[in-house]
């Protein structure tokens, strides 16, 4: 998914870092099965929320860490959890994850959909996605099931 303020751009324009869009995923969940706070905890644990405009080797504003909320309650949950994690000293640096109301989403091109599932042997998947899934499985195996 893409998010940004200048309409639906092409992927090349987003990669140029000048559209204001970010590469994100939209997650639909059943709050009786998993709370918003739990999802936030997974998100903050699986990536580094202290590095601005970068995730692993991907650099640019389109790779910034961002959380979107639907309600004031979700906003409060995110602010509260990030404050707790910072107070606990979970990272050496402060969290720089942006917190914004849910904007318009644009679905990414078809070749980006289910990318890991369709391309598990591609270098990016092996060196970036697989380690994140392994971290997820190790850290959250008693609570969640990671589908491949």
TrEMBL record:
It is an enzyme of class 1 (oxidoreductase). Keywords: Oxidoreductase. Its EC number is 1.8.4.11. Residues 8-126 form the Peptide methionine sulphoxide reductase MsrA domain. One of its GO terms (molecular function) is peptide-methionine (S)-S-oxide reductase activity. NCBIfam families: msrA. This is peptide-methionine (S)-S-oxide reductase. The gene is msrA.
